Amino acid sequence: MKTLLDYFESYNKKIFPLQIVLAIIAIGLVTFLLLIPGTTLVTILFNAFLSITFIWIAVAFIYFVGDLRRRFSFASYATAAAYLPLAVIFILDIFLKQTAYEISQFNWRFYTSVFIMCWGIILYPLSGYFNGHCYPRVPLFGAMPCPTNIFAIGFLTTFASNQLEITAIYVLSSMAVIGGVKAALIGYEGERIYEDIALLVSGVYGLWLVSVVM
Known about the structure:
Structural class: mainly alpha
Strand content: under 5%
Order of helices and strands: HHHHHHHH
Number of strands: 0
Shape: globular
């Protein structure tokens, strides 16, 4: 009987090297934002990147994994239903231009959020390795929900400057708490993804920021 990690393996092999391309693009865009924050072009490019990534997860990831499993669960549809509106938010902002991703100040929030971004791209698969989940049997940034969600929370809590992005943080953080509890503490089909403790922590962090700080 195939486990959830078996489906991750098949999916990763099908889309390789997309995971690497998405990680390189994200690191490049974040670097530009850190060097020249508030730049209109980079803001538009990042909105486009986030919207495309969320659409990919909502459609391609859900379809591939559901097709491999020969069934589509309620969780699959719920995940897709959450990511598509988020994609619409960032697509709209490309045209409305309400956002200018800026750094308010270099404080504890900035460094914590940057660390969360790095965790989503780099440290998440490394933590999976120490849990016995080696590539291709591990979720990867850009192509799967959990590490992408961690990165997005870190990114938005670093640079978000208006209500639109704060709403996105709230939605992503709520998803992270639910997904983190399910994946790391309860488990999917008998498989616990302990690296998703970071997903739970990032979700709690994001909810706390939008409720108390931002």
